[in-house]
Amino acid sequence: MIGKKFEDGSIHSLPQDYADMLGWEELTSIAKITDTGAITVIGEKNGLPEAVCFDESFRYWIPRKFDPDITSFIYINGKLGEDIQRLFNKITLIGKISNPDAREYGTAVYLCEYPKTSFNEFWTNRLKDLRDY
Question: For the whole model, what pTM was predicted?
Fold first, then answer.
């Protein structure tokens, strides 16, 4: 099983380097209607805006404020966070990574619309939480 062990120690049908990339095209196609690496690397050819993410090196380039304030948002994650559920009035599951060999298999893409409060206010609080972490 050499080459088929992921960094978390789990065994899969493909090496992690390949499995990481398999869902990228599908993810950017679904999000077109952010694993942010896929959105950043291939999203532009599908007309997607640049990804924003709290993970890893993306934290260095996080905008402090959005102008104009956000009214709709593509949320990509394994599950819908409670903070996002509280923020938006309308949340629609628009797809999931369906390739079982993809590392991101099952990752969901949600369209979040009509925030209940200012997205910038939510964003500022999240950034504060990150600084305190």
Answer: 0.70
